[in-house]
Amino acid sequence: xxxxxxxxxxxxxxxxxxxxxxxxxxxxxxxxxxxxxxxxxxxxxxxxxxxxxxxxxxxxxxxxxxxxxxxxxxxxxxxxxxxxxxxxxxxxxxxxxxxxxxxxxxxxxxxxxxxxxxxxxxxxxxxxxxxxxxxxxxxxxxxxxxxxxxxxxxxxxxxxxxxxxxxxxxxxxxxxxxxxxxxxxxxxxxxxxxxxxxxxxxxxxxxxxxxxxxxxxxxxxxxxxxxxxxxxxxxxxxxxxxxxxxxxxxxxxxxxxxxxxxxxxxxxxxxxxxxxxxxxxxxxxxxxxxxxxxxxxxxxxxxxxxxxxxxxxxxxxxxxxxxxxxxxxxxxxxxxxxxxxxxxxxxxxxxxxxxxxxxxxxxxxxxxxxxxxxxxxxxxxxxxxxxxxxxxxxxxxxxxxxxxxxxxxxxxxxxxxxxxxxxxxxxxxxxxxxxxxxxxxxxxxxxxxxxxxxxxxxxxxxxxxxxxxxxxxxxxxxxxxxxxxxxxxxxxxx
Length: 494
Description:
The chain is α/β, with parallel strands linked by helices. The chain folds into two domains: 3-265 and 471-491, Aldehyde Dehydrogenase, Chain A, domain 1; 270-459, Aldehyde Dehydrogenase, Chain A, domain 2 (3-Layer(aba) Sandwich), CATH 3.40.309. The chain has helices at residues 3-10, 53-68, 77-93, 95-106, 110-131, 167-180, 195-206, 221-230, 243-255, 280-292, 312-325, 344-359, 393-396, 412-419, 435-444, and strands spanning 19-21, 24-26, 33-37, 44-49, 138-139, 146-154, 157-161, 184-188, 214-216, 236-240, 260-264, 270-273, 304-308, 363-366, 370-371, 379-380, 383-386, 403-409, 427-431, 449-452, 485-493. The strands form six sheets. A seven-stranded mixed β-sheet has the order 14-17-18-13-12-19-20, sandwiched between helices. It has a five-stranded parallel β-sheet with strand order 9-8-7-10-11, with helices on both faces. A three-stranded antiparallel β-sheet has the order 5-6-21, with no helix packed on it.
């Protein structure tokens, strides 16, 4: 990957995008389209289909037909594996194309996007391809006059609603295990990040995935997302996004066929730094990138910094120095560390949080303003806010922007109380040289992922999921397969 290649790809014209249903590209049933603008400079990139309820119904019907006739589900595991491995190879072969396309659409810095999006997606698809023929049924321990078998079967039609921050990575977390287990899938991408996911599905068809097995419907969540949620023919729905949307999906399930709903809903993850951290300079660097990479638009971002009062001022100064050294700008420029905020609406929301933080007595150490307005894009100077109480808005509500809230603590017990004083529980971290303390904190902080002397970097071998209002179910690892299979008992009298 070099700047010349990136510059060539960034100028590539993007044709108007349609839905992908039953192996074909189709327009919206009413001909409606939506503009796709780049957060880099606000320019129009292309248009895409503005889906209707009829479009979503069509896609779900295609997925159901594909599942029922067994064109994918009934294939031997080795055959499904071959297709998925070829898909992973194609994703890698088109990695830079996919990464640049995604950055033009959602603003993530290219250095991060290249690894976190296509390369991560290829790795996930390959992981589940390799896993699918290692999933066995069971024989239960019974009396000698009975044979009891436990079969693992695909659920059926899966609906997947994918967020805009990492559409390929998070999409693959869901598509990989769903397809590996033989399900058919309908994908609804985010309105502000559909382009790379559409291309990913095109590559799946090129790899030999049968028509109807994987479909994409673009459009507004209030229309096509709702239609998916209310469908009587979607058997399970997986979602990553906001808590408000997650609640609506649960309501839709209750109002329709009681489909399973698996939700990953973000968090207010505590990054807890004790005075005995092994390397405070390293902790400061990791802390800054743990919240500011991708402009803070990361579900597991360490958005709450809890600092031992004994080192509070010195450590905040270290983090601020790292923050001021970060270069913010064009996300397709390899010399920049931080790219654009995803949309004008997201930027406006971030700035409103700054007004609230000041009104509640927070002190802005650095950043907090919109910058680079002359570009026409959406950029925000990463901000550190001190004096944030555990009850403050910045402690309780997910910003999903480059905003770090800092709160001091006096001892381990107080750190635990503050860490657990939110409705969320997705991720967290503790920095300490005390092994016993590290283990105590891992157990005491209510969260799905707990880092020790690091932040981020957990790979696909371990699950990601939250507790509380961070959701339910798990992506990544073999545990993700559980969402996409049914257990069936065969009780046989001998």
